[in-house]
Design brief:
alpha/beta; single chain; Spore Coat Polysaccharide Biosynthesis Protein SpsA, Chain A; 9 strands; 18% strand
Length: 338
């Protein structure tokens, strides 16, 4: 197989992988050597508590593996933030994000073939999913359903973790105020040319997902990438205000047209409905204010050029004019052919 004439960066995140980190990296290096003309392998150590970092230091010495870049984090962060550390420091024309315990690095050749043909974002989904608990699977399905209804994209199938991004996509994400969050969904919604591929490979050694961490990451993704939850709050506040207003009118009508009303019922009901009406209005105003502030803080760049095209035939001459001073006067000298 011919080498792709590109500079490829591959980002992987590891934590407590001392038992098989050397095998993972050796396998990755052997595949990348036969894949791209220039490449780098970026390893993010997500605050491992075992000897992973010590082994990584050994693998990067003079007798170790070539083209490794290691970034050790001081504290554990969520996986999206850890991957973004690698993306932000990648130098390649294309950047691949791989989970070595689940994703098959061999499939990267097909993804790169798509990328060099002009596709900015290539996603790959493994049809063999690692087994998870019933509670985690249920919560995962609920999250994907909510995100799809709010943002119109099914993250698991349309924007999986295994992806290959062109440098222009990475630069586009960098312009956003929360790149570590928007990295997860933005490549699928930013208007870039993208392709979704599927393959089947048995996961290498998947770790059980922690439900608490996953819920926290899912809520943060929902809140930071869509205003739908807060819009639901403001809608409920508006409904509460209107409902209490109608209830107050109902209480007044009962007091005027009914003679058999318990003493104090009218005044107590009006007091309660009035208080709830004011509370609903306050929540409505606060919700709209928070939405406005979130809109300002999460607002991306005004525009971004996703693709550029130049005519094959250029009519103008590519010349650069400079000035040279002779006898106290500036003389323009054209630089170009002839």
């Amino acid at each position: 197989m011919a080498l792709f004439p590109v500079f490829l960066s591959v980002v992987i995140v590891v934590r407590d992988e001392a038992h098989n980190i050397e095998d993972i990296l050796t396998n990755a290096v052997s595949k990348l050597t036969n894949l791209a003309r220039d490449w780098e392998l970026i390893i993010i150590d997500n605050a491992s508590s075992d000897d992973t970092l010590t082994i990584l230091k050994t693998l990067t010495d003079v007798n170790g593996l070539p083209n490794l870049q290691v970034y050790a984090l001081t504290k554990e962060v969520d996986v999206d933030t850890a991957f973004w550390v690698g993306l932000e420091n990648a130098l390649g024309d294309f950047v691949a994000v791989i989970d070595p315990t689940i994703d098959d690095i061999i499939f990267l050749s097909e993804m790169l073939d798509k990328a060099v043909s002009g596709v900015d974002v290539v996603f790959a989904s493994n049809q063999q999913k690692p087994p998870q608990g019933l509670f985690y699977s249920g919560a995962y399905a609920v999250f994907n359903g909510l995100y799809r209804s709010f943002n119109g994209i099914y993250l698991t199938k349309e924007a999986p973790h295994y992806r290959l991004l062109s440098k222009r996509v990475v630069n586009f994400i960098l312009q956003h105020p929360q790149p570590a969050v928007t990295y997860r969904h933005l490549p699928a919604t930013g208007g870039f040319a993208r392709s979704n591929l599927e393959y089947s490979a048995a996961p290498r050694s998947p770790h059980a997902k922690r439900i608490g961490e996953s819920i926290e990451r899912g809520v943060r993704l929902l809140v930071s990438t869509t205003r739908a939850p807060m819009r639901l709050v403001t809608s409920l506040s508006l409904f509460g205000a209107i409902a209490n207003l109608f209830y107050s009118l109902y209480v007044v009508a009962i007091g005027l047209f009914k003679s058999t009303v318990a003493p104090g019922w009218v005044s107590l009901s009006l007091q309660q409905s009035g208080m709830f009406f004011l509370i609903s209005l306050v929540l409505l105003v606060l919700g709209e204010y928070i939405l406005h502030m979130a809109r300002l803080s999460n607002e991306g760049p005004l525009y971004h050029v996703a693709q550029e095209f130049t005519s094959a035939k250029i009519s103008r001459h590519e010349k650069l004019n400079i000035e040279e001073v002779k006898d106290g006067q500036a003389v323009t000298l054209p630089l170009g052919p002839g």
